[in-house]
């Protein structure tokens, strides 16, 4: 959420200049500006599989069209967001370098099973169906939200308002299932669903008028409706989050040692306050978890 972070920096600088100009001030704050410092935890590092310790690198796949979780920076190559920031912190504790790799969401678990990367951290909700192929270290909670055109020309306010409309979603996401369940209440006015290859492509369907709404996760929905580059085109239908669930870092089921190392490191980040600092820095603190679970999603 680069706009918010730039705004926060500008406000801080303005305040500093005002105080300096007025000659005011007092005792400087003792609160640190950044998150608590991190160092390698040798007990957690020992939990890592030997091949990961030897390689010194952990590769994590993500679909980078989901700000503020994971998205491309202005250079079009660097993946930024609260997921890469949390990943980097996990790497510091485990003594390995974290590399985020862009992958398509609808096939990302297939690549995990085939050993193409070590883990998936891509705003993926932990569900029984997905747990058939992976274990999940839960790190965030969010639900679905409806994005509509600015001004709400179709008068959409809730899921019921999607009946008879065309709705774009990212392929492979739970939003496809949410719409399928919503169809039951639509009678002879079904929802026409467009499945797009990314969240960005789904939003493009809305912006160009080929869709009347987008169903996506609440955090990227908020970004689309508030970012200075897109807020003229999009708004939220409401602040309701439909069917909220736990995101999880997906790890292949035959790599329990890696799963446990990640769960232990994430627990350490939560306890130290580093985890909450990262979420607050991306303005998603309300979605944080207080206890790290494994496979703690819906049953």
TrEMBL record:
Domain Solute-binding protein family 3/N-terminal: 57-281
PROSITE patterns (alphabetical): PROKAR_LIPOPROTEIN (PS51257)
Phylogenetic placement of the source organism: Bacteria, Bacillati, Actinomycetota, Actinomycetes, Geodermatophilales
Pfam families: SBP_bac_3
Record organism: uncultured Blastococcus sp
The UniProt record lists the keyword Signal: yes
Domain of life: Bacteria
Parts of the chain that traverse the membrane: none
The protein's name: Solute-binding protein family 3/N-terminal domain-containing protein
Signal peptide region: 1-21
Keywords annotated in UniProt: Signal
PANTHER family for this protein: ARGININE-BINDING EXTRACELLULAR PROTEIN ARTP (PTHR35936:SF17), MEMBRANE-BOUND LYTIC MUREIN TRANSGLYCOSYLASE F (PTHR35936)
